[in-house]
Protein backbone atom coordinates (compact mmCIF):
# COMPACT_ATOMS: atom_id res chain seq x y z
CA UNK A 1 0.00 0.00 0.00
CA UNK A 2 2.72 2.42 1.12
CA UNK A 3 4.95 1.38 -1.76
CA UNK A 4 2.29 1.94 -4.36
CA UNK A 5 1.61 5.42 -2.94
CA UNK A 6 5.32 6.19 -3.15
CA UNK A 7 5.45 4.84 -6.69
CA UNK A 8 2.54 7.06 -7.67
CA UNK A 9 4.28 10.08 -6.15
CA UNK A 10 7.51 9.13 -7.91
CA UNK A 11 5.77 8.93 -11.30
CA UNK A 12 4.05 12.29 -10.75
CA UNK A 13 7.37 13.90 -9.77
CA UNK A 14 9.12 12.32 -12.74
CA UNK A 15 6.51 13.71 -15.10
CA UNK A 16 6.85 17.23 -13.74
CA UNK A 17 10.65 17.13 -13.70
CA UNK A 18 10.84 15.84 -17.26
CA UNK A 19 8.54 18.62 -18.45
CA UNK A 20 10.73 21.17 -16.61
CA UNK A 21 13.99 19.65 -17.93
CA UNK A 22 15.10 18.71 -14.40
CA UNK A 23 14.74 14.93 -14.71
CA UNK A 24 18.32 14.38 -13.39
CA UNK A 25 17.08 15.02 -9.84
CA UNK A 26 15.72 11.47 -9.75
CA UNK A 27 18.66 9.81 -11.49
CA UNK A 28 19.78 7.96 -8.32
CA UNK A 29 16.27 6.78 -7.36
CA UNK A 30 17.08 3.10 -7.82
CA UNK A 31 20.10 3.36 -5.52
CA UNK A 32 18.18 5.09 -2.71
CA UNK A 33 17.24 3.51 0.55
CA UNK A 34 13.42 3.36 0.60
CA UNK A 35 13.39 5.58 3.72
CA UNK A 36 15.25 8.33 1.81
CA UNK A 37 12.85 8.34 -1.12
CA UNK A 38 9.89 10.06 0.59
CA UNK A 39 11.89 13.09 1.79
CA UNK A 40 13.40 13.57 -1.69
CA UNK A 41 9.92 13.56 -3.19
CA UNK A 42 8.80 16.04 -0.50
CA UNK A 43 11.58 18.41 -1.54
CA UNK A 44 10.70 18.07 -5.21
CA UNK A 45 6.99 18.53 -4.55
CA UNK A 46 7.70 21.75 -2.67
CA UNK A 47 9.38 23.31 -5.74
CA UNK A 48 7.28 25.95 -7.45
CA UNK A 49 8.35 25.67 -11.07
CA UNK A 50 5.99 28.42 -12.17
CA UNK A 51 8.13 30.71 -10.05
CA UNK A 52 11.48 29.01 -10.74
CA UNK A 53 11.40 28.69 -14.53
CA UNK A 54 11.13 32.43 -15.22
CA UNK A 55 13.84 33.06 -12.61
CA UNK A 56 16.12 30.54 -14.29
CA UNK A 57 15.72 32.43 -17.57
CA UNK A 58 16.26 35.91 -16.14
CA UNK A 59 18.67 35.28 -13.23
CA UNK A 60 20.56 32.04 -13.92
CA UNK A 61 20.97 31.71 -17.68
CA UNK A 62 21.22 35.50 -17.91
CA UNK A 63 22.64 38.08 -15.55
CA UNK A 64 19.93 40.62 -14.76
CA UNK A 65 20.93 44.19 -15.52
CA UNK A 66 21.54 46.15 -12.37
CA UNK A 67 19.84 49.39 -13.17
CA UNK A 68 21.00 52.28 -11.04
CA UNK A 69 18.66 55.25 -11.58
CA UNK A 70 20.43 58.12 -13.34
CA UNK A 71 19.12 60.76 -10.97
CA UNK A 72 20.15 59.40 -7.57
CA UNK A 73 20.97 61.85 -4.80
CA UNK A 74 22.19 61.20 -1.25
CA UNK A 75 19.30 60.34 1.06
CA UNK A 76 18.40 62.84 3.78
CA UNK A 77 18.79 61.51 7.31
CA UNK A 78 18.16 62.45 10.90
CA UNK A 79 21.54 63.12 12.55
CA UNK A 80 22.49 61.19 15.67
CA UNK A 81 22.65 64.41 17.69
CA UNK A 82 19.73 66.72 16.95
CA UNK A 83 20.43 70.22 15.63
CA UNK A 84 19.18 72.97 17.98
CA UNK A 85 15.92 73.28 16.05
CA UNK A 86 15.37 69.48 16.21
CA UNK A 87 15.75 69.05 19.93
CA UNK A 88 12.06 69.23 20.78
CA UNK A 89 11.24 66.85 17.96
CA UNK A 90 13.78 64.29 19.24
CA UNK A 91 12.42 64.63 22.78
CA UNK A 92 8.95 63.94 21.42
CA UNK A 93 10.33 60.99 19.43
CA UNK A 94 11.92 59.58 22.58
CA UNK A 95 8.59 59.85 24.38
CA UNK A 96 6.63 58.31 21.50
CA UNK A 97 9.08 55.42 21.15
CA UNK A 98 9.13 54.72 24.88
CA UNK A 99 5.32 54.82 25.04
CA UNK A 100 5.00 52.42 22.08
CA UNK A 101 7.36 49.95 23.78
CA UNK A 102 5.61 50.29 27.17
CA UNK A 103 2.25 49.70 25.52
CA UNK A 104 3.42 46.45 23.91
CA UNK A 105 3.28 47.86 20.38
CA UNK A 106 6.87 46.88 19.58
CA UNK A 107 8.40 43.41 19.13
CA UNK A 108 12.02 42.52 18.50
CA UNK A 109 12.77 40.67 15.26
CA UNK A 110 16.12 38.97 14.68
CA UNK A 111 17.04 37.39 11.37
CA UNK A 112 19.19 34.34 12.08
CA UNK A 113 18.59 32.16 9.05
CA UNK A 114 21.88 32.93 7.28
CA UNK A 115 24.49 30.27 6.62
CA UNK A 116 27.42 32.20 8.12
CA UNK A 117 29.80 30.68 5.58
CA UNK A 118 32.41 33.42 5.96
CA UNK A 119 32.68 32.90 9.74
CA UNK A 120 32.88 29.15 9.25
CA UNK A 121 31.50 28.35 12.73
CA UNK A 122 30.04 24.87 13.16
CA UNK A 123 26.59 25.88 14.39
CA UNK A 124 24.09 28.71 14.06
CA UNK A 125 25.86 32.07 14.19
CA UNK A 126 23.72 33.23 17.12
CA UNK A 127 25.33 30.49 19.24
CA UNK A 128 28.81 31.90 18.54
CA UNK A 129 30.47 33.04 21.79
CA UNK A 130 31.74 36.59 21.56
CA UNK A 131 31.69 38.58 24.81
CA UNK A 132 35.22 39.41 25.97
CA UNK A 133 35.13 38.20 29.61
CA UNK A 134 32.18 35.83 30.05
CA UNK A 135 32.26 34.49 26.49
CA UNK A 136 28.51 34.89 26.11
CA UNK A 137 26.89 33.95 22.84
CA UNK A 138 25.32 36.50 20.51
CA UNK A 139 21.87 35.11 21.40
CA UNK A 140 22.59 35.48 25.12
CA UNK A 141 23.63 39.11 24.69
CA UNK A 142 20.44 39.93 22.75
CA UNK A 143 18.34 38.03 25.30
CA UNK A 144 19.92 39.98 28.18
CA UNK A 145 19.36 43.26 26.32
CA UNK A 146 15.73 42.29 25.90
CA UNK A 147 15.45 41.36 29.59
CA UNK A 148 16.93 44.73 30.53
CA UNK A 149 14.38 46.43 28.27
CA UNK A 150 11.59 44.41 29.87
CA UNK A 151 12.75 45.68 33.23
CA UNK A 152 12.99 49.24 31.92
CA UNK A 153 9.51 49.21 30.35
CA UNK A 154 7.91 46.97 32.97
CA UNK A 155 6.41 44.52 30.52
CA UNK A 156 7.08 41.39 28.49
CA UNK A 157 8.33 42.15 24.98
CA UNK A 158 7.97 39.51 22.26
CA UNK A 159 11.05 38.29 20.36
CA UNK A 160 10.58 36.86 16.87
CA UNK A 161 13.57 34.91 15.56
CA UNK A 162 13.81 33.83 11.95
CA UNK A 163 15.62 30.53 11.44
CA UNK A 164 16.26 28.47 8.31
CA UNK A 165 15.33 24.81 7.78
CA UNK A 166 19.03 24.01 8.31
CA UNK A 167 19.50 25.71 11.67
CA UNK A 168 15.97 25.80 13.10
CA UNK A 169 16.34 22.69 15.28
CA UNK A 170 19.78 23.76 16.52
CA UNK A 171 18.56 27.25 17.44
CA UNK A 172 15.49 25.98 19.29
CA UNK A 173 17.65 23.43 21.16
CA UNK A 174 20.19 26.14 22.02
CA UNK A 175 17.51 28.28 23.64
CA UNK A 176 16.00 25.29 25.47
CA UNK A 177 19.44 24.19 26.75
CA UNK A 178 20.00 27.69 28.17
CA UNK A 179 16.52 28.07 29.67
CA UNK A 180 15.83 30.84 27.21
CA UNK A 181 18.49 32.92 29.00
CA UNK A 182 15.89 33.93 31.58
CA UNK A 183 13.23 35.00 29.08
CA UNK A 184 9.77 33.53 29.26
CA UNK A 185 9.65 30.79 26.56
CA UNK A 186 6.22 31.97 25.46
CA UNK A 187 7.68 35.37 24.57
CA UNK A 188 10.10 33.85 22.03
CA UNK A 189 8.64 32.85 18.66
CA UNK A 190 10.77 31.00 16.15
CA UNK A 191 9.72 30.92 12.52
CA UNK A 192 11.46 29.43 9.54
CA UNK A 193 12.28 31.13 6.30
CA UNK A 194 11.85 29.69 2.83
CA UNK A 195 14.55 28.14 0.69
CA UNK A 196 15.49 28.17 -2.95
CA UNK A 197 17.51 25.62 -4.91
CA UNK A 198 21.03 26.30 -6.13
CA UNK A 199 21.47 26.06 -9.91
CA UNK A 200 24.41 25.22 -12.11
CA UNK A 201 25.21 27.72 -14.83
CA UNK A 202 22.99 25.79 -17.27
CA UNK A 203 19.97 26.29 -15.05
CA UNK A 204 19.90 22.74 -13.67
CA UNK A 205 19.09 22.31 -9.99
CA UNK A 206 21.97 20.83 -8.02
CA UNK A 207 21.79 17.76 -5.80
CA UNK A 208 23.53 18.06 -2.42
CA UNK A 209 23.33 14.28 -2.01
CA UNK A 210 21.75 11.48 -4.03
CA UNK A 211 18.63 11.90 -1.95
CA UNK A 212 18.44 15.66 -1.43
CA UNK A 213 18.50 18.94 -3.33
CA UNK A 214 21.03 21.69 -2.71
CA UNK A 215 18.73 24.22 -1.03
CA UNK A 216 19.68 27.47 0.67
CA UNK A 217 17.77 30.15 2.58
CA UNK A 218 16.14 32.76 0.36
CA UNK A 219 17.86 35.81 1.90
CA UNK A 220 16.91 38.17 4.73
CA UNK A 221 14.28 39.64 2.39
CA UNK A 222 12.55 36.29 2.85
CA UNK A 223 11.58 37.53 6.33
CA UNK A 224 8.45 39.21 5.05
CA UNK A 225 6.94 36.16 3.34
CA UNK A 226 8.09 33.91 6.19
CA UNK A 227 6.32 36.11 8.75
CA UNK A 228 3.15 35.63 6.77
CA UNK A 229 3.41 31.93 5.90
CA UNK A 230 4.37 31.00 9.47
CA UNK A 231 1.29 32.70 10.93
CA UNK A 232 3.50 35.14 12.89
CA UNK A 233 1.99 38.09 11.07
CA UNK A 234 -1.47 37.08 12.31
CA UNK A 235 -0.09 36.61 15.81
CA UNK A 236 1.53 40.06 15.75
CA UNK A 237 -1.74 41.66 14.64
CA UNK A 238 -3.68 39.65 17.23
CA UNK A 239 -1.29 40.84 19.95
CA UNK A 240 -1.66 44.46 18.73
CA UNK A 241 2.03 44.72 17.85
CA UNK A 242 2.47 47.53 15.33
CA UNK A 243 6.24 47.87 14.97
CA UNK A 244 9.10 45.41 14.49
CA UNK A 245 12.57 46.35 15.67
CA UNK A 246 14.63 44.44 13.08
CA UNK A 247 18.21 43.41 13.84
CA UNK A 248 20.71 40.96 12.38
CA UNK A 249 22.19 38.16 14.43
CA UNK A 250 25.81 39.24 14.01
CA UNK A 251 26.12 42.63 15.73
CA UNK A 252 26.33 42.42 19.55
CA UNK A 253 26.60 46.21 19.97
CA UNK A 254 23.15 46.87 18.51
CA UNK A 255 20.53 48.65 20.58
CA UNK A 256 17.78 46.05 20.32
CA UNK A 257 15.00 48.58 21.02
CA UNK A 258 16.01 52.19 20.44
CA UNK A 259 13.23 54.48 21.67
CA UNK A 260 14.44 57.52 19.69
CA UNK A 261 14.68 55.53 16.45
CA UNK A 262 11.26 53.97 17.01
CA UNK A 263 9.83 57.36 17.94
CA UNK A 264 11.25 59.12 14.85
CA UNK A 265 9.73 56.32 12.76
CA UNK A 266 6.33 56.89 14.39
CA UNK A 267 6.49 60.69 14.41
CA UNK A 268 7.38 60.80 10.73
CA UNK A 269 4.73 58.25 9.66
CA UNK A 270 7.40 56.00 8.20
CA UNK A 271 6.54 52.47 7.07
CA UNK A 272 10.08 51.13 7.18
CA UNK A 273 12.99 53.05 8.72
CA UNK A 274 16.71 52.39 8.69
CA UNK A 275 19.79 53.27 10.69
CA UNK A 276 22.84 54.54 8.83
CA UNK A 277 26.50 55.13 9.61
CA UNK A 278 28.92 57.63 8.15
CA UNK A 279 31.11 55.51 5.85
CA UNK A 280 34.75 54.88 6.77
CA UNK A 281 35.96 55.40 3.21
CA UNK A 282 34.49 56.02 -0.23
CA UNK A 283 34.38 52.33 -1.10
CA UNK A 284 33.36 50.82 2.24
CA UNK A 285 31.48 47.59 1.54
CA UNK A 286 28.11 48.77 2.82
CA UNK A 287 24.99 49.75 0.88
CA UNK A 288 24.45 53.47 0.23
CA UNK A 289 21.24 55.27 1.16
CA UNK A 290 20.10 57.21 -1.89
CA UNK A 291 16.92 58.78 -3.20
CA UNK A 292 15.54 58.78 -6.69
CA UNK A 293 12.23 60.38 -7.69
CA UNK A 294 11.41 60.86 -4.04
CA UNK A 295 11.93 57.18 -3.20
CA UNK A 296 14.47 56.01 -0.67
CA UNK A 297 16.65 53.09 -1.73
CA UNK A 298 19.87 51.27 -0.92
CA UNK A 299 22.40 51.01 -3.73
CA UNK A 300 24.92 48.28 -3.06
CA UNK A 301 28.58 49.37 -2.83
CA UNK A 302 29.36 47.32 -5.91
CA UNK A 303 26.66 49.12 -7.93
CA UNK A 304 27.35 52.72 -6.94
CA UNK A 305 29.09 54.31 -9.96
CA UNK A 306 32.71 55.14 -9.18
CA UNK A 307 32.37 58.87 -9.77
CA UNK A 308 29.52 59.00 -7.24
CA UNK A 309 31.35 56.84 -4.70
CA UNK A 310 34.29 59.26 -4.82
CA UNK A 311 32.21 62.46 -5.04
CA UNK A 312 32.81 65.07 -2.35
CA UNK A 313 30.92 68.22 -1.38
CA UNK A 314 32.49 71.71 -1.50
CA UNK A 315 33.21 71.45 2.25
CA UNK A 316 35.19 68.25 1.67
CA UNK A 317 32.62 65.86 3.14
CA UNK A 318 31.70 62.69 1.25
CA UNK A 319 28.56 63.12 -0.87
CA UNK A 320 27.22 59.57 -0.55
CA UNK A 321 28.15 59.02 3.06
CA UNK A 322 25.19 57.22 4.64
CA UNK A 323 26.00 53.51 4.83
CA UNK A 324 23.33 50.89 5.49
CA UNK A 325 23.83 48.57 8.50
CA UNK A 326 20.61 46.57 8.30
CA UNK A 327 18.91 47.92 11.42
CA UNK A 328 15.28 48.78 10.76
CA UNK A 329 11.90 49.55 12.24
CA UNK A 330 9.13 48.02 10.15
CA UNK A 331 5.38 48.51 10.42
CA UNK A 332 3.45 45.28 10.83
CA UNK A 333 0.70 46.59 8.53
CA UNK A 334 3.33 47.40 5.88
CA UNK A 335 4.40 43.73 5.95
CA UNK A 336 0.75 42.73 5.72
CA UNK A 337 0.27 44.95 2.72
CA UNK A 338 3.47 43.78 0.96
CA UNK A 339 2.71 40.11 1.41
CA UNK A 340 -1.00 40.23 0.68
CA UNK A 341 -0.61 38.99 -2.86
CA UNK A 342 2.10 36.46 -1.94
CA UNK A 343 4.49 38.25 -4.31
CA UNK A 344 8.07 38.65 -3.19
CA UNK A 345 10.81 41.25 -3.23
CA UNK A 346 13.13 41.09 -6.26
CA UNK A 347 15.79 38.38 -6.40
CA UNK A 348 19.52 39.03 -6.48
CA UNK A 349 21.90 36.64 -8.19
CA UNK A 350 25.12 35.51 -6.51
CA UNK A 351 27.70 33.12 -7.92
CA UNK A 352 28.87 30.81 -5.12
CA UNK A 353 30.74 27.59 -4.46
CA UNK A 354 28.17 24.89 -3.76
CA UNK A 355 29.12 21.27 -3.05
CA UNK A 356 27.12 18.87 -5.22
CA UNK A 357 26.73 15.32 -6.55
CA UNK A 358 27.79 14.94 -10.16
CA UNK A 359 26.23 12.66 -12.81
CA UNK A 360 28.42 9.75 -11.63
CA UNK A 361 27.26 10.20 -8.06
CA UNK A 362 30.56 11.66 -6.86
CA UNK A 363 30.57 14.35 -4.19
CA UNK A 364 32.32 17.44 -5.59
CA UNK A 365 33.67 20.31 -3.48
CA UNK A 366 34.34 22.97 -6.12
CA UNK A 367 37.32 25.28 -5.74
CA UNK A 368 35.63 28.08 -7.71
CA UNK A 369 32.06 29.34 -7.92
CA UNK A 370 30.01 26.74 -9.76
CA UNK A 371 26.47 27.74 -8.92
CA UNK A 372 23.93 30.52 -8.81
CA UNK A 373 22.07 31.25 -5.60
CA UNK A 374 19.14 33.63 -5.46
CA UNK A 375 18.34 35.82 -2.47
CA UNK A 376 15.95 38.59 -1.51
CA UNK A 377 17.23 41.59 0.44
CA UNK A 378 15.17 43.36 3.10
CA UNK A 379 16.26 46.81 1.92
CA UNK A 380 14.37 46.29 -1.36
CA UNK A 381 11.26 47.03 0.68
CA UNK A 382 12.38 50.67 1.16
CA UNK A 383 11.36 52.10 -2.24
CA UNK A 384 7.99 50.37 -1.99
CA UNK A 385 7.12 52.24 1.21
CA UNK A 386 4.98 55.37 1.09
CA UNK A 387 7.42 56.92 3.61
CA UNK A 388 10.83 55.74 4.75
CA UNK A 389 13.30 57.57 6.97
CA UNK A 390 16.98 57.18 7.87
CA UNK A 391 18.46 57.84 11.31
CA UNK A 392 22.21 58.09 11.71
CA UNK A 393 23.90 56.19 14.50
CA UNK A 394 27.36 56.05 15.97
CA UNK A 395 29.68 53.24 14.87
CA UNK A 396 31.67 52.80 18.12
CA UNK A 397 28.43 52.65 20.11
CA UNK A 398 26.34 50.46 17.86
CA UNK A 399 28.04 48.55 15.07
CA UNK A 400 30.70 45.88 14.95
CA UNK A 401 29.44 42.77 13.18
CA UNK A 402 30.95 39.30 13.21
CA UNK A 403 31.13 38.32 9.55
CA UNK A 404 34.56 36.87 8.83
CA UNK A 405 36.77 34.35 10.62
CA UNK A 406 39.71 36.76 10.47
CA UNK A 407 40.51 40.34 9.46
CA UNK A 408 37.88 43.08 9.43
CA UNK A 409 34.47 42.32 10.96
CA UNK A 410 35.80 39.25 12.71
CA UNK A 411 35.50 37.99 16.33
CA UNK A 412 38.79 39.78 17.09
CA UNK A 413 37.62 43.22 15.90
CA UNK A 414 34.20 42.73 17.47
CA UNK A 415 35.62 41.87 20.93
CA UNK A 416 38.04 44.80 20.60
CA UNK A 417 35.09 47.12 19.88
CA UNK A 418 33.10 45.73 22.81
CA UNK A 419 36.05 46.45 25.10
CA UNK A 420 36.54 49.91 23.62
CA UNK A 421 32.88 50.77 24.21
CA UNK A 422 33.04 49.54 27.80
CA UNK A 423 36.23 51.55 28.33
CA UNK A 424 34.56 54.68 27.00
CA UNK A 425 31.61 54.27 29.38
CA UNK A 426 33.94 53.64 32.32
CA UNK A 427 36.06 56.69 31.56
CA UNK A 428 32.93 58.83 31.26
CA UNK A 429 32.06 57.60 34.75
CA UNK A 430 35.44 58.89 35.90
CA UNK A 431 37.03 55.45 36.29
CA UNK A 432 40.68 55.29 35.37
CA UNK A 433 41.89 52.51 33.09
CA UNK A 434 45.33 51.24 32.19
CA UNK A 435 46.14 51.61 28.53
CA UNK A 436 48.88 50.53 26.18
CA UNK A 437 51.13 52.89 24.17
CA UNK A 438 48.58 52.89 21.32
CA UNK A 439 45.89 54.16 23.70
CA UNK A 440 43.97 50.88 23.73
CA UNK A 441 42.65 49.62 27.10
CA UNK A 442 45.27 47.30 28.61
CA UNK A 443 42.61 45.20 30.33
CA UNK A 444 39.64 43.10 29.27
CA UNK A 445 36.26 44.68 30.01
CA UNK A 446 32.68 43.57 29.71
CA UNK A 447 29.52 45.36 30.80
CA UNK A 448 26.45 43.18 31.00
CA UNK A 449 23.36 44.57 29.24
CA UNK A 450 21.64 43.76 32.53
CA UNK A 451 23.80 46.39 34.23
CA UNK A 452 23.28 49.12 31.64
CA UNK A 453 21.99 49.34 28.09
CA UNK A 454 23.56 52.69 27.23
CA UNK A 455 25.87 55.41 28.50
CA UNK A 456 23.14 57.33 30.31
CA UNK A 457 22.00 54.27 32.21
CA UNK A 458 25.60 53.34 32.99
CA UNK A 459 26.35 56.78 34.44
CA UNK A 460 23.05 56.84 36.34
CA UNK A 461 24.02 53.58 38.08
CA UNK A 462 27.18 55.27 39.34
CA UNK A 463 29.39 52.15 39.16
CA UNK A 464 31.89 51.74 42.00
CA UNK A 465 34.86 49.53 41.16
CA UNK A 466 38.17 48.69 42.81
CA UNK A 467 41.16 50.11 40.88
CA UNK A 468 41.63 48.37 37.53
CA UNK A 469 45.16 47.20 36.80
CA UNK A 470 46.95 46.26 33.62
CA UNK A 471 45.86 42.80 32.45
CA UNK A 472 42.75 42.68 34.68
CA UNK A 473 39.59 41.03 33.43
CA UNK A 474 36.61 43.01 34.63
CA UNK A 475 32.97 42.01 34.32
CA UNK A 476 30.33 44.50 35.42
CA UNK A 477 26.86 43.16 36.08
P1 LIG B 1 24.76 37.89 5.83
O1 LIG B 1 24.50 38.67 4.61
O2 LIG B 1 25.93 38.30 6.65
O3 LIG B 1 24.84 36.37 5.43
O4 LIG B 1 23.46 37.94 6.72
P2 LIG B 1 25.16 35.08 6.29
O5 LIG B 1 24.45 33.98 5.57
O6 LIG B 1 24.84 35.23 7.74
O7 LIG B 1 26.73 34.90 6.19
P3 LIG B 1 27.63 34.47 4.94
O8 LIG B 1 27.38 35.51 3.87
O9 LIG B 1 27.21 33.10 4.53
O10 LIG B 1 29.01 34.53 5.50
C1 LIG B 1 23.07 39.09 7.40
C2 LIG B 1 21.94 38.71 8.35
O11 LIG B 1 20.86 38.20 7.63
C3 LIG B 1 20.52 36.91 8.09
C4 LIG B 1 21.79 36.37 8.74
O12 LIG B 1 21.49 35.36 9.68
C5 LIG B 1 22.33 37.65 9.37
O13 LIG B 1 21.65 37.93 10.58
N1 LIG B 1 20.09 36.08 6.94
C6 LIG B 1 20.83 36.05 5.81
C7 LIG B 1 18.95 35.34 7.07
O14 LIG B 1 18.27 35.36 8.12
N2 LIG B 1 18.56 34.58 6.01
C8 LIG B 1 19.25 34.54 4.85
O15 LIG B 1 18.83 33.82 3.93
C9 LIG B 1 20.42 35.30 4.74
What does this entry look like structurally?
The protein contains 14 helices and 21 strands. It has 477 residues and is α/β, with parallel strands linked by helices. It has three domains: 4-46, no CATH class; 73-403, Spore Coat Polysaccharide Biosynthesis Protein SpsA, Chain A (Alpha-Beta Complex), CATH 3.90.550; 410-477, no CATH class. Helix 1 crosses helix 2 (34-45), helix 4 packs across helix 9 (259-267) and helix 7 packs across helix 11 (332-339). The chain is globular, with a radius of gyration of 24 Å. The model has no long low-confidence stretch (mean pLDDT 96). The site of uridine 5'-triphosphate has 21 residues, from loops.
Give a brief description:
The chain is built from 14 helices and 21 strands.
CATH superfamily of the largest domain: Spore Coat Polysaccharide Biosynthesis Protein SpsA, Chain A
The proportion of residues in beta strands is 15-25%
Q: What is the CATH T-level topology of the largest domain?
A: Spore Coat Polysaccharide Biosynthesis Protein SpsA, Chain A
Average pLDDT, all residues: 96
**Poorly predicted tracts of residues:** none
- Neighbour order of strands in the largest sheet: 4-3-2-10-14-11-19
What is the helix fraction of residues, given as a range? 25-40%
What is the overall number of helices?
Answer: 14
Report how far apart the termini are: 62 Å
Main beta sheet strand tally, sense and closure: 7 strands, mixed
How many domains make up the 3D coordinates?
Answer: 3
Please provide the count of β strands.
21
Q: Provide the list of bound ligands, each named once.
A: uridine 5'-triphosphate
What radius of gyration results from the CA coordinates? 24 Å
Structural class: alpha/beta
CATH architecture of the largest domain: Alpha-Beta Complex
Provide the CATH top-level class of the largest domain.
Alpha Beta
Please state the overall shape, judged from the principal axes of the Cα atoms.
globular
